[in-house]
């Protein structure tokens, strides 16, 4: 039911574990290094497309004040992985985002659905593009008979 | 510590990623097709047992209004997989269920513990039965000394 | 990107699925048996270090009243696994903790970051030490350029 090997599955799970740790540590430089030099982040729900590491760093720095004094965590689930070519993977997953403040109180960002294209360069995965869809904006169409 | 191979583990994780996507898209027809023709869903906590795809579709359609205008997501964890026979797997896991509204506000359904029986037919997994237990209704007994 | 085999990855995921089930069932005796006899739990954020199974049982029993009438669930993500020696693994992960009451209402503990040392004895994994860091207490330093 999946086009990729168990090794690739675990490789991808580990890639996201590492990338999400960097993101949640607000380690912008480290996070951006997990993208290709020409990597793209497209927040489709707010029509905001950022291209290249330099632009991603600038955008992330601008967003930092929003995360002052809170610990952010991304909780991902339901990875589906398809081989799109040699060393290219299409990966989709869902993400729940928490914010924990100094008192330990947890609040939530919206939930998201994400479409990534990963490429393997010199044996290492990078995100080439990321398209983020915010949940709740368009009602999914039920195709019930 | 598990009776099944890594290949089966990844096969099962991928099965749930696909099935939960269909469920959360409110794609009732697609979701029901991931069950066997005689598949059973038993919501043990409300004594509601539904047998067969046709009855499952009717029941799901009746529940649809509850999800108008919100995006539902199931977040599963702690899969335990046991081989129960050739091409039959007993799978248990926990599920956290979010509802995200048009403004992006996230609210929560109760948490659940689920017991599934999966069968493999022509190389493809299907749910033969699903028993859903709502958390919080019976206090677990602590067997501490 | 990981130093361990896919078999070890699945072994570790299964270990946590089993251990978290025992913890969330408030099965203190069963949970403590997943630690080595001299196992250590260190709640770094409150300077509380508990050493050995007997002390862990006493501590857990003292904490039980806090969980009267609610179902607790730990939701883990982003496991990173490093081989630290023969039959010794360093595992880190994040944990979201829910409490579901009799009415099904879900509330949240703070989120956590956990560092475990696992050892394999007679082919079976045990936690030798667990260090728990509560999120939100120290703001992560952004190393952005």
UniProtKB/TrEMBL annotation, chains A, B, C:
Please list the residue ranges annotated as the SnoaL-like domain.
Answer: 9-131
Highest taxon of source: Bacteria
Could you tell me which Gene3D superfamilies the record lists for this protein?
3.10.450.50
Q: Name one matching Pfam family.
A: SnoaL_4
Stored SUPFAM superfamilies:
NTF2-like
Q: What is this protein called?
A: Actinorhodin biosynthesis protein ActVIA
